[in-house]
Design brief:
Ferric Hydroxamate Uptake Protein, Chain A, domain 1; 663 residues; globular; mainly beta; 5% helix; Maltoporin, Chain A; 5-stranded mixed sheet; single chain
Length: 663
């Protein structure tokens, strides 16, 4: 990912004399086709060898971006839609391949390969990993990751890889202030002591938020460690602690706007969400033979959440504790077969998630629940290089889940799925690669989709959804300065799980399987140019969604834009200055929950952000200007119960100034 630019800014940067002054890129310049990823096969592999649309966001990309969180960073990526629901960065939705309101359950998010999707409808908490800790982010689009990782990887996999210690000592600190009384401070140190490497970081963030009752106070501390016991044995461990207190402003309905409610106003001044979350992971690895390894990853996570929500229908409070224990043994063998390079990957994923819930509402009083979800998945994946320029891969996974509910009728339920993937990657020449891929992916119902809190009953008829994903793409390097990727995809989903506001026996709706097939198909196009001092990127996503048969035939999936585009640029000036501009166009889309497509579509918008950075020795200073054109827009919109359109207004033009020192 490199920066983005508006048409006017691009014209200015490409004015006569600008490109003439640029020097040719050196011969050893790294190109995106040669970048290495681990997410696509759970081991290191060049992007050019992966039969899927894969991108990597590097530290350099992060440094020039105006992003203050990981979802902000993903906003300009091709094929990804990002929605800041509350406008303060606390509740973010990241959507790969157009799943709309169920995106949280159809996009698998990993941190250093560790699953962070919650076993309930809360999905992924994007505040857990501070941007300061990120080494790079790997994105694998499509369902190929389901064989390797299992549940939730229907639209794709996002793997956030955090920084590790290096061979020399480094330390640094950063302070930033900005609009809405924003303040953030952070510090890190990393290095090595003999066989032990380490990276430690901590941060503190405080903001009043753009709207009334939208403030946030967050604290984070975390670290990565690695100890080389011998040349053949290494043990890694990591831990992270996060705590935040967040005010929740709620939505503003169309009728409330019509009576004079302002964009910054909150009609729910008492709503809040407080969170405490920590994890510990240990990962010993034994290397043997020429390039083989066996590893075992074990992690434990505990998450506590306390929230309060009110509306004209009453109030609701929740107090939940979730504990998750995982174990993932893996064997990777690099051995030739008949003189051909071959990689065999065998593994097992075991997960046990327990959730204790206390719900208190003005209409039902207090109730307590205990839920448990146990997953087990065994997989095999193999990649064979038939020729120097031709590789084929295939994989299989058997996955099982058991739910337990107390109280619950029945008290337990079981489901299982079989998954497949097959791909071919062919290098036409040194600068061009073509790939084809088929994948079968799935997602199980999360625990609170299976359970009815009003009747204490378990819906054993709610089935897992399954998807067939077809992809064809081409990566081409036009020159040492210009590369492009084009990807065509079709994703057919059976028994798709969604919330039907008209379903259920109590008038509150129900989670159901769609009685027909849902189709998502489209194109993803991205270009990147590196002209020495000037870097340019352009991306465009076309996503057509439709309910092919059953109820709602020929209707669009709500919350999904048909068209989305981004563009960006960075220009290195003299005297240590760098300027960057990025632009995102979000097309029209139906309000979430509008499955009948009966309301007008939500407005499209163009968002422009800019950054000015100054570097002098160990000192760095920057100024971010977000929403440069002061656009009034709402990233997120949903139908309320009445129903009518309800908006979550996004921030107006805002500023952030920061300074950092690194040693």
């Amino acid at each position: 990912m490199k920066p983005v630019i508006t048409c006017a800014a691009l014209a200015a940067l490409l004015a006569p004399g600008q490109l003439l002054a640029a020097e040719p890129a050196p011969a050893d310049t790294p190109y995106i086709m040669d970048e290495v990823v681990v997410t696509a096969t759970r081991q290191e592999e060049k992007i050019v060898d992966v039969p899927a649309n894969v991108t990597v966001i590097s530290q350099e990309d992060i440094a020039i971006s105006t992003a203050q969180s990981i979802p902000d960073l993903l906003r300009t990526e091709v094929g990804i839609t990002v929605l800041d629901i509350t406008g303060n960065g606390r509740n973010m939705k990241v959507d790969l391949r157009g799943f709309g309101e169920t995106a949280q359950s159809n996009t698998l998010v990993l941190v250093d390969g560790r699953r962070v999707n919650q076993p309930d409808m809360s999905g992924t908490d994007w505040t857990l990993i501070d941007l300061e800790r990120v080494e790079r982010i790997e994105i694998v689009r499509g369902g190929r990751g389901a064989v390797l990782y299992g549940d939730n990887a229907t639209g794709g996999v996002i793997n956030i890889i955090t920084r590790e210690g290096g061979d020399t000592f480094h330390s640094g600190a950063k302070v930033a202030v900005g609009s809405y009384d924003y303040y953030k401070s952070s510090a890190f140190l990393s290095g090595r002591q003999e066989n032990l490497s380490y990276n430690l970081s901590a941060s503190h963030k405080d903001s009043d938020g753009y709207r009334d009752n939208s403030g946030m106070l967050a604290k984070d501390v975390g670290g990565n460690f690695a100890y080389d016991i011998s040349d053949a044995l290494q043990i890694k461990w990591s831990a992270d602690y996060h705590k935040d207190t967040t005010d929740m402003p709620g939505s503003i309905k169309k009728s409330e706007f019509d009576t004079g409610t302002s964009r910054r106003q909150s009609l729910h001044p008492d709503n809040f969400n407080n969170l405490e979350d920590y994890y510990f992971k240990v990962n010993p690895t034994l290397f043997f033979g020429s390039d083989n390894l066996v590893t075992m990853e074990i992690s434990h996570r505990k998450r506590s959440s306390l929230f309060f929500s009110s509306s004209q229908y009453g109030s609701y409070a929740g107090d939940t504790d979730t504990k998750t224990l995982t174990a993932s043994p893996q064997l990777i063998l690099h051995e030739k077969i008949g003189g051909m390079a071959n990689t065999l990957n065998l593994g097992l994923d075991l997960t046990d998630a327990e959730e204790d819930i206390i719900n208190t509402s003005s209409f039902a009083g207090e109730s307590t629940y205990a839920m448990e979800k146990k997953n087990s998945g065994a997989y095999i994946h193999n990649e064979l290089n038939l020729l120097d320029n031709l590789a084929v891969s295939a994989g299989y996974r058997n996955d099982k889940v058991k739910y337990e509910f107390d109280p619950g009728t029945p008290a337990s339920s079981k489901q299982s799925e079989d998954l497949y993937t097959a791909g071919i990657n062919y290098a036409l020449e040194k600068n061009t690669a073509v790939y084809l891929n088929y994948s079968r992916s799935f997602r199980y119902p999360v625990m609170d989709e299976m359970f009815n809190f009003f009747s204490n009953t378990v819906d054993t008829g709610l089935l897992p959804q399954s998807s067939d994903n077809y992809e064809v793409g081409i990566r081409h390097r036009f020159s040492p300065m210009l590369t492009a990727t084009t990807n065509l995809f079709r994703l057919d989903t059976k028994d798709e799980i969604f919330y039907d506001p008209t379903g259920g026996d109590y008038g509150y709706g129900a989670n159901v399987n769609h009685d027909g097939k849902t189709r998502r198909e489209g194109m993803e196009l991205s270009l990147a140019a590196d002209l020495n001092r000037l870097g340019l990127t352009v991306s465009y996503s076309y996503t057509d969604t439709s309910m092919e048969d059953g109820t709602g035939t020929d209707r669009k999936v709500p919350g999904v834009p048909t068209h989305k585009a981004s563009a960006g640029a960075t220009l290195a000036l003299d005297q240590g200055f760098t300027v960057g501009v990025n632009t995102v166009y979000m097309g029209k889309r139906y309000f979430e929950s509008d499955f009948s497509n009966s309301f007008p579509e939500q407005d499209d918008y163009v968002l422009v952000n800019a950054k000015l950075k100054y570097q002098w020795q160990n000192l760095e200073a920057y100024l971010d200007i977000n929403n440069l054109t002061d656009k009034e827009y709402s990233e997120y919109g949903v139908l309320s119960w009445e129903p009518q359109e309800a908006y979550y207004p996004s921030p107006e033009r805002n500023f952030l100034f920061g300074i950092s020192m690194n040693y």
